[in-house]
């Protein structure tokens, strides 16, 4: 049974499948999600599961973009540093 059919039949909604963007296109979205999760829950609460959920992707998709939680957060710090430096310049 397809997801659309199960939705019409009144079964509980299932998370819709994210469009396949590939890791390069998805990385900025993962970083946006990581920033939101980190802002709400801090480092300890910024788990890969929480980031994946915020980004609307599965953990395997998240791991296609970044290999670890720390890799995500280091990339986020790099991005935000670049944005800050550009704003100051």
Order of helices and strands: HHHHH
User: How many E strands?
Assistant: 0
Count of runs of 4 or more consecutive helical residues: 5
Helix content: over 70%
Q: Give the low-confidence spans.
A: 1-9
Rg to the nearest angstrom? 16 Å
Rough outline: globular
Mean pLDDT: 84
Q: What's the end-to-end separation, in Å?
A: 55 Å
- Strand fraction equals under 5%
- Sketch the major β-sheet: none
What attributes characterize this protein structure?
89 residues, mainly alpha, globular, disordered N terminus
Write the layout of secondary structure elements.
Layout: H1 3-8, H2 23-45, H3 48-55, H4 59-65, H5 69-88
Helix pairs in contact: 2-3, 2-4, 2-5
Q: How would you describe the overall organization of this protein?
A:
The structure is a single chain. Mean pLDDT is 84; it is low at 1-9. Helix 2 (23-45) crosses helix 3 (48-55), helix 2 (23-45) packs across helix 4 (59-65) and helix 2 (23-45) crosses helix 5. The chain has helices at 3-8, 23-45, 48-55, 59-65, 69-88. By secondary structure, it is mainly α.
